[in-house]
């Protein structure tokens, strides 16, 4: 799917946003769903089976959002640590619900085999507004770095910091949607005072590997598992997905740490970012959730089968 270039309705073309433009953008954001009902209520049910930790708290003009992570109840220092993150971009629904579904149905399968740490909704303000940015018009998934301007990112960095060096695997659950082209990329161009260059949206699931630590066998193990659930995105006519060369079936690569991406925060051997396409006529919301769960399980299983040595 492609969209024609269009002027975003906030700001002046070629001029980066100031505080006035950001305030105008914020005034247009509408709450569409409830973090408390959709996410926190489920997390409360997990307290009987898992450890639930509040690792941060967001306060946007009096709207307070506690940030929770779910840990294995049988945490052992001799076991590898597996991190699952979702909802870094709040609008990417299956990232949140896929992480929660994994905990509900499969986390117990790894008792005594791995330490699981799951942060299912990193950006709850954006989850409620079905948006990519936080309330300050900052993309958390370009902000995982020291002195992060996004508290969502800073809080997660604080959570994982004591465990760096112990992570075997980190999988970060995302979506690529039609709204990336119709809203979020035009908004980004307007915010930064740059021209909007239309692109395409791949139809299907794909992964983003780390160009500084490529793990092709790991990526293909995840792709093979997801392919049993939903279709894998093909390369475009130029052999690319979202502008990046396809290096293997359904896989592209980014420099995760250099870009401040969530999947680069742990130093784990095995890292990946999932991307499902919920707007495909060939996929349902439940299939998207199931694809995320299949990806998580395959990622953990591969990491367990290939320990560091």
Write up what this structure looks like.
This protein has 309 residues and is α/β, with parallel strands linked by helices. It has a single domain, classed as Aminopeptidase. The protein contains eight helices and ten strands. The strands form two sheets. An eight-stranded mixed β-sheet has the order 1-2-4-3-5-10-6-9, with helices on both faces. It has a two-stranded antiparallel sheet with strand order 7-8. Helix 3 crosses helix 8 (285-305). The chain is globular, with a radius of gyration of 19 Å. The chain starts with 18 loop residues before the first helix and ends with a helix. Mean pLDDT is 96; it is low at 1-5. This is M14 family metallocarboxypeptidase. Residues 31-309 form the Peptidase M14 domain.
Features:
single chain; alpha/beta; 8 helices; disordered N terminus; Aminopeptidase; 10 strands; eight-stranded mixed sheet; 309 residues
List the helices and strands and how they pair.
Layout: H1 19-27, H2 35-46, E1 51-60, E2 63-71, E3 81-86, H3 93-106, E4 115-119, H4 124-129, H5 151-160, E5 167-175, H6 178-192, E6 206-210, H7 216-226, E7 240-241, E8 244-245, E9 251-254, E10 270-276, H8 285-305
Parallel strand pairs: 3-4, 3-5, 5-10, 6-9
Antiparallel strand pairs: 1-2, 2-4, 6-10, 7-8
Helix pairs in contact: 2-3, 3-8, 7-8
């Amino acid at each position: 799917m492609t969209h024609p270039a269009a002027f975003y309705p906030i700001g002046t073309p070629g001029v980066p946003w100031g505080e006035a433009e950001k305030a105008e953008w914020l005034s247009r954001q509408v709450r569409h769903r409830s973090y408390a009902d959709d996410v926190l209520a489920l997390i409360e049910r997990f307290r009987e089976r898992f450890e639930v930790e509040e690792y941060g708290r967001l306060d946007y003009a009096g709207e307070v959002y506690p940030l929770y992570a779910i840990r294995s109840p049988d945490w052992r220092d001799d076991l590898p640590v597996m991190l699952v993150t979702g909802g870094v971009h709040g609008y990417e629904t299956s990232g949140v619900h896929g992480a929660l579904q994994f905990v509900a149905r499969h986390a117990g399968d790894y008792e005594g085999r791995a330490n699981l740490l799951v942060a299912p909704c990193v950006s709850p303000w954006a989850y409620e507004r079905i948006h990519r940015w936080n309330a300050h018009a900052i993309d958390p998934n370009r902000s995982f770095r020291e002195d992060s301007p996004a508290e969502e990112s800073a809080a997660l960095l604080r959570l994982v910091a004591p465990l760096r060096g112990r992570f075997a695997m980190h999988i970060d659950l995302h979506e690529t949607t039609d709204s990336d082209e119709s809203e979020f990329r035009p908004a980004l161009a307007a915010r930064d005072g740059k021209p909007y260059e239309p692109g395409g949206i791949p139809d299907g699931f794909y992964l983003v590997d780390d160009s500084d630590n490529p793990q092709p066998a790991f990526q293909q193990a995840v792709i093979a598992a997801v392919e049993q659930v939903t279709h894998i995105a093909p390369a475009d006519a130029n052999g690319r997905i979202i502008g990046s060369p396809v290096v293997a079936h359904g896989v592209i690569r980014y420099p995760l740490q250099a870009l401040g991406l969530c999947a680069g925060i742990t130093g784990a051997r095995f890292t990946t970012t999932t991307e499902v396409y919920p707007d495909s006529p060939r996929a349902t919301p439940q299939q998207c959730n199931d694809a995320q769960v299949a990806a998580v399980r395959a990622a953990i299983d591969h990491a367990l089968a290939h320990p560091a040595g």
